[in-house]
Design brief:
Radius of gyration: 17 Å
Largest sheet: 6 strands, parallel
Strand content: 5-15%
Number of strands: 6
Helix content: 40-55%
CATH architecture: 3-Layer(aba) Sandwich
Order of helices and strands: EHHHHHEHHEHEHEEH
CATH topology: Rossmann fold
Number of helices: 10
Distance between the termini: 11 Å
Bound molecules: magnesium ion
CATH class: Alpha Beta
CATH superfamily: HAD superfamily/HAD-like
Oligomer: single chain
Amino acid sequence: MADLQVFDMDGTLLLDPRTPTASLAVAREAGCWEEVELLEGLLAAGRMTHSAFAAVARVFWEHLTPPMVDQAFDRCRWLQGIEEVVADIHAHDGVAAVITMAPDFFAERLADAFGFDYVAATPYPTLPFEAPVNLSTAPDPEDKERIVRQLKDHFGIDGRTVAWGDGPSDAFMFRAADWSVALNPRKELPTAPDLLYEGTDLREPYRHVRAMLRDQATQAA
Ligand SMILES: [Mg+2]
């Protein structure tokens, strides 16, 4: 029986106190740290929408190039063991996906770097930017729930979906999943997760998740 495992990125897979979000990692390379930090603050306080963030960040990132994004990605600190966990999900015929509000030009690198099957992120124009951000395609955190349901339908997975996240916006993902795992949550989550992990090695909570899925399959047999 296959399973679907969906991961948030910022604060979940990307666990770096120097650059807590992908946008800040990119901003460091682009020389606009203070500006993007200000935008992140407005976003976190609910004073800016994700589509407005994308439109304004695109202006600060006007001279951003793919090699600068590569550099930003390579300098980030990630949870340990991501590649092994994704390989084990595949060994069990499962699907590993990332659903993030971060820019697609950064998040899509997760597929090559760690083997994820699917990455959903905020769409930006092709780098270097010439076109404006398409505001109608910028997702909101509420969309995380819809995307999980679409992935379940697409891959025909029923009753074996695990969502991994760290913040209140991931509660939308948790709603559409059968199990929820909170990794290093910074704030209290709206609902208690099935599993809570504080640490830096994804393989540790994954062992528990794999055992949970095995038990469920045994009970169903
Ligand atoms: Mg997060």
